[in-house]
Amino acid sequence: QKEVEQDPGPLSVPEGAIVSLNCTYSNSAFQYFMWYRQYSRKGPELLMYTYSSGNKEDGRFTAQVDKSSKYISLFIRDSQPSDSATYLCAMTVSGGSYIPTFGRGTSLIVHP
Amino acid sequence: EAEVAQSPRYKITEKSQAVAFWCDPISGHATLYWYRQILGQGPELLVQFQDESVVDDSQLPKDRFSAERLKGVDSTLKIQPAELGDSAMYLCASSLDRVTDTQYFGPGTRLTVL
């Protein structure tokens, strides 16, 4: 079993839909949780960054962390065709090397 | 906006040949990372530099891979000889420091080994 599990999709939604992307993890030492967006043939770019449990909102994006369930989510409101990309969750332990452990990514397709 | 530069963007080679990838991090970023991303998977760290020193190369297949960052700025990753299983995206990232700062990724080099 991998440390970080993420459904590869693809997830196909109509424009304007609310998108929910999720990851589960097994290492209870993970404290920092990140979401990256990766467009085709590009490198990942950091979208959201949260520490420990709770919610964080940035525009149309909301990140949630539930450490008791070892489950993190990224919500995208009013999804746009430009949101079509692969979304990678990543997490690191506190006090360690801070090298993120990535999920395999979920491919999101938002169709007009 | 400053970006991490990588070249070449695409490389096709035959197995047993040597290949080299180059990365120029964002100016002032002391920490540089090389990742390998197999299609459909997340990036996995190969090597991490702090300035010119290797901090972590535990996942680097040292029998065929080498990496250097001689002057603490740009970096080269080499594979010799290349094997079919090396086909992947090779990503370079940089950050101001290795503790808490955000990693910024370059566009990657897509390697295909025939």
Written account of the structure:
The complex is a heterodimer of chains A (112) and B (114). Chain A has no helices and eleven strands. Chain A is mostly beta strands. In chain A, the strands form two sheets. In chain A, strands 2, 4, 5, 9, 10 and 11 form a six-stranded mixed sheet that branches. Chain A has a five-stranded antiparallel sheet with strand order 1-3-8-7-6, with no helix packed on it. Chain A starts with a strand and ends with a strand. In chain B, a hairpin with an 8-residue loop joins strand 9 and strand 10. Chain B is built from no helices and eleven strands. With 114 residues, chain B is mainly β. Chains A and B meet through strand 5 and strand 10 of A and strand 5 and strand 10 of B.
Helix content of chain B: under 10%
- Topology of chain B as a string of helices (H) and strands (E): EEEEEEEEEEE
Class derived from helix and strand content of chain A: mainly beta
- Mean pLDDT value of chain A: 93
Count of individual helical segments of chain A: 0
* Assembly state of the chains shown: heterodimer
Main structural class of chain B? mainly beta
Unreliable spans of chain B are none
CA-based gyration radius of chain B:
13 Å
First-last Cα distance of chain B: 36 Å
Q: Which two chains form the greatest contact, residue counts included?
A: A-B, 21 and 24 residues
Query: Per the principal axes of the C-alpha atoms, what is the gross shape of chain B?
Result: globular
Average pLDDT of chain B, to the nearest integer? Answer: 93
Percent of residues in helices of chain A = under 10%
